[in-house]
Amino acid sequence: MSRLLPNDKLKIKIFLIGIFTFISFSFICYKLYDLIINNGDYYETILSIKQNKTYIGKYAKRGRILDRNGKVLVDNEEIYVLNYTKYSNITIDKELEIADNLVDCLKLDYSKVNNEELKNYFYIINYDKLIKRANKNVINKFNDRTLSSKDYELYLKKLISKEEIKSLSEKERKVSYLYSLMNKGYRNDIKLIKENITKEELDNIKDYMKYGFSIGIRYKRIYPYGETFRKYLGNVGNIPSEQINKYLKLNYRMDDIVGTSYLEKQYESVLKGQNEEYILTATGKKEIIKELKDGEDITLSIDIDLQKEVEDIIYKQVVNAKKERNTKYYNKSYVIISNPNTGEIYASAGTGIVGGKNMNRVDYLTDLTNYALTPGSIVKGASHLVGYKYGAIKIGTTVNDSCIKVKNTPEKCSWKKLGKIDDLKALKYSSNYYQFLIAIKIGEGKYKYNGPLILNSSGFKKYREIYNQFGLGVKTGLDIPNENIGVVGNDLNSGALLDYPIGQYETYTPMELMQYINTLATSGKRYSLHFLKDKDIELLNTVDVEDKYMNRVKEGLKMVMESGGTGASHINKKYNAAGKTGTAQSFIDTNRDGTIDRETISSSFGAYIPYDNPKVSIVVLSPNVSDKSSSFTSKVNRKIAREVSDLYFNKYNIKNE
Asked: What is the pTM of this model?
């Protein structure tokens, strides 16, 4: 092996130095780019805050939230607040002294004090004690400036025991909370100490106003309709800690109030408004740099009067149903009313009870986007279309309704023997057997009574593709943050493929089922659902099936609502509805120990009206209506559907605009 000459070693060394220099220079350039271009506004905001270039003058009102008829659902109430602005020369000891004197004068919720605030208070008042415990090497590193002040503080705080925190007196815990409010955010921010300050409190603290306290006006959200549709309206509050950087990049201040959930959060940029901001000139004169601008109102598609009456109907019917047998685990139902041609939601309710005999009313509204349930036969309209698309059935295909029996498994049947049926009657009477035969062909299987059955797992993809196009198993586009979807099945055995088309395989949220019914109503056009009235209509996709098949399914859904059909008594015949019922096996954890231990029955129903020119769609879902201790199943879902549809057409009948 040849040895490197000195000259060669020098060349290699120079080469390596060059590579290192190039990489270092590239990294510096990248960081500069990130600092100046990507995050320039953010760092400029931080610098502005720290230098206290700007001050808040008047606070803006958030925009109101109105229903479709202009009724105010969320408004603002003017309140007086106690603020604190830190003087540049005030000391920690002085602030602690002020807090100690004021805790008995201010009625604050001192129970909100958290462990970090307590630990910070203990650190301040016992600093010398903690120094004595510290490792000398750590102290030397801090003194030599090889350990930052922040890291040194974190190290000392780790030396505080849980017992020492618990030993703090009630007065000390109160002081630590008030002190934390006085030091929240950046040094020169205006800190909110208390909302709705009383005259008595003002009298008690008037001698301390000279230390930076002041009275200001802010606005509190109020809800004229109480709890009706309340949860989806959302909440406002301080910027969540994990989103501070995001909001600072958008030129918010640390003490700004923002929408923290649902519609308040979704439409934050519209509702927020702009606070008045000013700077102080060299002569101390205020110079306005941002004019006060109140937030804009938003108008929802919800009719709040319809919403309230729907909630009342559900509650009444739930209470009545609890007097029936087999309803031990039933406690709530859901109703959604929508415009299928636009995706607007007119009413969306989840109402029920808790507390056993007391029948205390509970709002389950957010279940509509967060709770997924087994849908049952309501999905058979989509299942039929899978059969048509892949040639498993044709228009007019006839069978003699029976049972499927696979080796070593129980029989799988329709709810009763339905005799000779074609594709339309299979929908009208809700035949399971008809769907099993479709699934066997979709799965490329060969069926023999009591024989083995092996189906190709590609069948799951075929069903899921069409279901997704209807909005089942995907997000609906509803204009709220964090919409959930149900459980996507991962069991690919043959029995699961038989369960898929009868709605016993995957789970869907009530909103997904609403979009499914809407998409049937529009002959395959899937529009995003929305609560904002003037939101642009958004076509998400069109179901990939031939028109003749879509029309055939819609004809079958019309027959469901006619005499003899499973949905015949759900909606008055004079309204000319088309729809589908569903009954699903469902399972619950009665002991709340993480183990499913009880089988129940859930009911579903969806319809669009009128069938020949749909103007409105309705979905009604009632989970766990029966505990299967006998054959009796409550008809509460049908009763709700009947009463809600009568209410809508007799009193509201919202016109397309």
From this structure: 0.83
